[in-house]
From TrEMBL:
Chain ranges of the Pre-rRNA-processing protein Ipi1 N-terminal domain: 124-218
Gene expressing this chain: IPI1
Ranges of Basic and acidic residues composition bias in the record: 10-23
UniProt name for this protein: Pre-rRNA-processing protein
rRNA processing listed as a keyword: yes
């Protein structure tokens, strides 16, 4: 009797139940109703704001071997820049070496990130212009032509957001880098650079951008004195000596609060005012500048137009 009952119970698992007309199938014991709808999902215990520690962890990805990862990291940092200014020094130290990155998309993402950092933290680029200019100068003299041709974009950022400090501390070095970038020889050059006799459209466009950036750099250096006089109204001519300095490292020329580098190179010289920048340009670069610009004007086209603008600008220096 007992064995037949066990057999019937086992056979029930393999038998299909016959449903009556109009009667629904019985629901399982673990059935969950999912027919409900909700307009919003509340997550009170989850933070939606990105913490700055998350950005610090991602900074190491700027050295990743894949260019797509480096680009996505820069885009992520740009989209989640914090309001805390203490982390920006660490961000710049990690991303500035990408000025010489071999990927063009990474360099473009870096340009966008630097602009966003400057907009979010005014004065940031000017404060760190010395460290940024090291990588910009490296890009201007890089062996890769694509990196050299994009270096003017970083120069424009420095001129737009930190021109005062950048022009003072890197006047001679930047002009020499522009000469190298434009294939203009200098008298003290051991090996003269040669420029191809024919330039394609891309080379002409990049060369025009570089010349325009060079024009802005010289103009920023020689017109600074007049611009400052127009912006600042003082009661007494010595009032500025008792005001808080508006530039970073105001006592760097006196070797105060800095770690001085012992060097005899002229590129490390500071040109704090209009007069010193004018004198160094006339003494070190004017002769070679006039020769190269004259050759540029003879080429005709847009390059000739930029050359004439440079000539007119330099004439104002010599007057």
């Amino acid at each position: 009797m007992g064995s037949t009952k066990k057999k019937k119970d086992k056979q029930k698992d393999f038998q299909k139940t016959k449903l009556k007309v109009g009667k629904e199938k019985a629901k399982a014991s673990n059935f969950t109703d999912t027919s409900f709808t909700a307009k919003t999902i509340s997550l009170p215990n989850q933070r939606l704001v990105k913490d700055k520690d998350d950005i610090v962890k991602r900074l190491s990805l700027t050295k990743h071997h894949q260019s797509s990862t480096r680009k996505e990291t820069l885009i992520y940092i740009e989209q989640h820049l914090p309001d805390d200014p203490s982390i920006y020094k660490q961000i710049l130290n990690s991303v500035c070496p990408l000025c010489v990155d071999t990927s063009r998309s990474v360099r473009e993402a870096l340009v966008s990130l630097l602009k966003e950092c400057a907009a979010k933290q005014p004065g940031l680029i000017e404060l760190h212009s010395n460290s940024i200019s090291l990588f910009v100068h490296s890009a201007m003299t890089h062996i890769n032509p694509a990196i050299r041709n994009d270096s003017y974009k970083f120069i424009d950022i420095l001129l737009e957001y930190g021109d005062d400090s950048f022009v003072k501390n890197s006047w001679i070095k930047t002009i020499k880098c522009f000469f190298t970038l434009l294939h203009w020889p200098l008298n003290d050059s051991k090996q003269l650079s040669s420029l191809p006799s024919t330039l394609n459209n891309d080379d002409v466009k990049s060369r025009l951008k570089i010349l325009e950036s060079f024009n802005r750099f010289i103009k920023s250096g020689i017109e600074e004195n007049m611009r400052k006089k127009a912006e600042v109204i003082t009661v007494h001519h010595l009032t500025g000596l008792y005001c808080i300095p508006s530039t970073s490292n105001p006592f760097e020329s006196l070797k105060l609060f800095t770690n001085p580098l012992v060097t005899t190179s002229s590129t490390s010289m500071q040109c704090d005012d209009f007069k010193s920048r004018r004198e160094t340009f006339v003494d070190l670069f004017l002769t070679d500048f006039n020769k190269n610009v004259s050759n540029l004007v003879k080429q005709g086209g847009q390059l000739s137009k930029c050359g004439k603008e440079l000539q007119q600008l330099v004439e104002t220096i010599c007057d």
